[in-house]
Design brief:
about 220 residues; 8 strands; about 40% helix; elongated
Length: about 220
């Protein structure tokens, strides 16, 4: 699978070798890129791809106006809400199938901010929801397909590339990559500098997600 945040060609260029040489010397390069991109997504709490979260449980604790509750998904932006299930005491009711979405309707979604508003007249004033009474299955990310994906920021590409290179140079693969006479010790300072740069960027760009339950 081709990389999204960085590619074999970009990594090869960073290392000063050809893409063919990189592929021959590091046969699992695509797997390494995929692993790094998954790591970045976990740290950022979002993705420039599209991913589905299944059965994410919520305990509504924040009211919305006088007739509803709001929950915050753990990832954003939302592409689609595939299921919005409410526990009724003996079974789950999927509001996507049985209710109407829209402002002044049964529920509405702020897709960019990852907020789902549940409209329940009088409900907030007379009853506190049970723990994990809501569960959501949704697709999130900044691009459902390559054609409508948000542009990959250059600094994200840079971080992804450096993390892949760090992964290569701190494994046995470095022996095949580094020029003859070079060794990992002579690159340690540079690697530590890249690690710190990447860590700082990931911390600064991670999504801050509100908490709506008692987990």
């Amino acid at each position: 699978m081709a990389g999204v945040y960085t590619t074999k060609s970009i990594v090869a260029n960073f290392l000063g070798i050809s893409e063919t040489e990189l592929t021959n010397k590091v046969p699992d390069i695509e797997s390494r890129i995929s692993k790094v991109e998954d790591y970045i997504d976990r740290r950022l709490q979002t993705t420039y791809k599209s991913k589905q979260v299944t059965n994410e449980y919520h305990t509504p604790t924040r009211t919305y106006g006088i007739d509803g509750w709001v929950i915050f998904t753990k990832h954003r932006p939302i592409i689609s809400v595939d299921k919005l299930e409410i526990w009724k005491g003996n079974e789950w009711e999927d509001w996507v199938q049985t209710r109407t979405e829209g402002r002044n309707k049964d529920y509405w979604v702020n897709y960019e901010r990852g907020e789902i508003f549940l409209m329940m007249p009088l409900f907030p004033m007379i009853f506190i929801p049970d723990r994990e009474q809501v569960r959501v299955t949704y697709t999130y990310g900044r691009g459902a397909t390559e054609s409508n994906r948000d542009p990959i920021p250059k600094d994200l590409e840079d971080v992804a590339t450096k993390l892949v290179v760090i992964d290569i140079l701190t494994s046995e693969s470095y022996k095949a990559i580094l020029p003859s006479g070079d060794n990992i010790l002579s690159n340690r300072e540079k690697i530590e500098e890249w690690k710190q740069y990447c860590e700082n960027w990931l911390r600064m760009n991670a999504e801050i997600i509100p908490i709506d339950n008692w987990r």
